[in-house]
Design brief:
Blueprint lengths: L2 E2 H11 L12 E4 L5 E2 L1 E5 L4 H10 L3 E4 L16 H11 L3 E4 L2 H5 L4 H8 L3 E8 L5 E8 L4 H10 L13 E9 L16 E13 L3 H11 L7 E6 L7 E13 H11 L6 E3 L5 E11 L13 E5 L3 H9 L3 E4 L2 H5 L1 H13 L4 E4 L2 E3 L2 E2 L1
Parallel strand pairs: 4-5, 4-17, 5-6, 14-15, 15-16
Antiparallel strand pairs: 1-3, 2-6, 7-12, 8-10, 8-11, 9-10, 12-14, 13-16, 18-19
């Protein structure tokens, strides 16, 4: 079976929907032809000249990256400009480039969940909840014998998740009526006659970011030719969506010991921590990438904050709030997602060669 660029894009879109990206971000397919066949994929943090050489060496014709190749509009493709030269080289080699950036930061199972898991956190939840991520209530009507099958299909597509519970729904019995017209192909009833059908009213929560996929599942698995449904906008946000993560360690430990744990978990040669080494920490907040500017917004009960790009004044602010900081680097806190992308893509597309471009520092291979 052959796969195309658009198949890889669709898989990544299901994991990290584009609707989750910040409005200033630039994500999705940035170079390439959606219908081009893919024989090998390289995952990386940033599309650097070294990553491009790796892709060429392995014969990859698609790159899946976290950081955008094209972030701001390109005014020229002059090859005496390094970034323009890089983009031109990618185009010459017919390599498609797909980017999942802030949407991969925010989504479940993305950058921050991976980081929280690596650091051994439990009771993980979003650090800064994104209340702009709307939810809907899906209401549909289905014959009793088909309700379990439909509920399972909708849940598999992402409906019915409330906190740590899946397949959440409510159902009640009622009587539906319809009269099939001449062109109809009814599941039950006769054309030209009013039909009364005992039905179950099925209600489930639907995240806005995956509503199209869930509605497609409804159409694919509902027994009726024309299923009736309502999609109602809700005020309550999705509590599982947000930037960063917070959680707790199974046992308290000193800041110095936790700093070593972070260093080892992320395979870093070194990191910087701010605070007294003997300070006991258990409640952890983290934000992969550049999170120094968010120190002032951390919850009051935070013991230690793990992020990258923590500036001098950021650390001062944290110290005034009695919050220790660990600066594990922008690269260090995001690099684990590269292998996660590789593993997920390889599992989903076993006939394609997928490799991860890992670095010990930006632009340097392991």
């Amino acid at each position: 079976m052959s796969y195309k660029v658009k198949d890889i894009c669709n898989f990544m879109e299901e994991w990290a929907p584009e609707k989750l990206a910040a409005d200033w971000d630039n994500v999705g397919l940035q170079t390439g032809d959606p219908v081009q066949e893919v024989n090998a994929v390289l995952t990386c943090l940033s599309v650097t000249p070294e990553a491009l050489e790796e892709a060429k060496d392995m014969g990859a014709n698609m790159i899946v990256a976290h950081h955008p190749l094209i972030f701001r509009p390109i005014k020229t493709l002059r090859e005496d400009y390094p970034h323009a030269r890089l983009c031109a080289e990618i185009l010459r080699n017919r390599i498609a480039c797909f980017v999942a950036h802030t949407n991969l930061d925010i989504t479940e199972g993305g950058v921050n969940d991976i980081l929280a898991t690596k650091l051994g956190l439990t009771k993980i939840k979003p650090l800064f909840r994104d209340d702009s991520q709307r939810q809907f209530k899906l209401i549909t009507f289905v014959p009793k014998d088909h309700v379990d099958r439909l509920r399972d299909a909708l849940a598999l597509a992402g409906a019915g998740v409330i906190g740590d519970y899946s397949h959440c729904s409510f159902q009640s019995e009622g009587m539906g009526s319809f009269q099939p017209l001449e062109a109809a192909k009814p599941f039950s009833g006769e054309k030209g006659q009013l039909n009364l059908e005992p039905e179950i009213r099925l209600e489930m929560i639907v995240p806005a970011a995956t509503s199209a996929k869930i509605l497609q599942a409804l159409m694919n698995h509902h027994p009726y030719e024309e299923p009736a449904y309502d999609l109602i906008a809700l005020e309550n946000p999705n509590r599982r969506i947000g930037l960063g993560r917070q959680g707790i360690l199974e046992e308290p430990m000193s800041l110095a010991v936790f700093g070593k744990k972070v260093r080892d978990a992320l395979c870093l040669p070194h990191l910087v921590y701010y605070g007294q080494g003997e300070k006991k920490v258990r409640k952890v907040a983290l934000l992969g990438g550049s999170g120094g500017k968010m120190v002032g917004k951390l919850p009051e009960n935070t013991d230690v904050y793990v992020s990258g790009d923590v500036g001098y004044h950021d650390a001062e602010t944290a110290q005034l709030r009695d919050i220790a900081c660990i600066d594990a680097g922008h690269w260090g806190t995001e690099q684990p997602v590269v292998m996660e992308m590789k593993e997920r893509l390889q599992e989903a597309f076993p006939q394609i060669t997928v490799s991860a471009f890992l670095e010990t520092a930006p632009g340097i291979r392991l």
